[in-house]
Amino acid sequence: MTGIGRRTMLTALAGAAVGAPALVAVAPRPAVAAPDDLYQTNSELYASPTLTEGVDYARRFRRHGALDDDLAGVVGFPNTVVIAPHGGGIEVGTSELGLAVAGYHPATLTPTGATYDYWMFEGLRAANNGELHVTSTGCDDPQAESFCGGARYAVSLHGCTAGQLGLPDTAQAVAVGGLDAVLRTYLRQEYAAIGVLALDAPTTPALAALAGVQPRNIVNRTLSQQGAQLELSTPLRNAMFGTNTRAQRRHTTLPPFWSFVTATRAALARRGAG
């Protein structure tokens, strides 16, 4: 029997594919997500024998059902997702913000209005939660990818220092990034209305590291291939809680917390209506 070389086989397959329906292009996964991260992807973190889910970290999510059996009308389909990739003790306050922006009280999970799908990854350790940080371009959690991949609009909650924003250490501010320029505009307008300094990260060279404009950023992996990334300074997040511990944050939310949540939800509502 005559042997067929690998190169010959691949050439033949490529030729046979000419004229076939094109597949949807998928952005390649990065070989290295972030040099400073101990784990380059969520899959790598989940596979670590030194970590235990429920002890070191947790994943929480909620997807709202959609059912349409009405022959005469159309039922609206959930089209927005809220994510907090670095919740718990990794970027403090983003879990609580994620839940509230999604429409749930962070202490009771009681709906507070219109609800959105949400997903979060949380550090549960008493210390060293930063070791659990997986950068947003390396996020490959199946639920996160599914939620974002099925949504038209997305917003992600993150934490940073005021210094990373190029501001004094006490500055309460948020950098608004991501590829959804319309949602970024709405968010900045709503934050300005409540007196929160909002910087447009993609158009500010000094904020390039926080711009969130990489297509592989999980918040941009939506049906529209765009989303909005919020980077809240530490002083802004600190002002949102009376007792800023993992056990008590959700029970001691302050007016600045709810003002920020209301503004964010207003921007999402405007985007969804448009």
Descriptive notes:
It is globular and about 55 Å long. The N terminus is likely disordered. Strand 2, helix 3 and strand 3 form a beta-alpha-beta unit. With 274 residues, the protein is an alpha/beta fold. A seven-stranded mixed β-sheet has the order 1-3-2-4-7-5-6, sandwiched between helices. The longest helix has 19 residues. The termini are far apart.
Distance between the termini: 64 Å
Judging from the principal axes of the Cα atoms, what is the shape? globular
Structural Rg: 21 Å
Number of strands: 7
In CATH terms, what is the architecture?
A: 3-Layer(aba) Sandwich
Q: What sequence of helices (H) and strands (E) makes up the elements?
A: HHEEHEHEEHEEHH
The name of the CATH superfamily reads: Poly-gamma-glutamate hydrolase, zinc-binding motif
- Which spans have pLDDT < 50 for at least 5 consecutive residues? 1-33
Q: Give the strand content.
A: 15-25%
Q: Main sheet: which strands, in order across? A: 1-3-2-4-7-5-6
Largest sheet properties: 7 strands, mixed
Output the number of helix runs: 7
The level-1 CATH class: Alpha Beta
Number of domains: 1
In summary, what is this structure?
This protein is of the alpha/beta class. Helices cover 26% and strands 16% of the residues. The chain contains 7 helices and 7 strands.
Task: Name some characteristics of this structure.
274 residues, alpha/beta, Aminopeptidase, seven-stranded mixed beta sheet, 7 strands, 26% helix
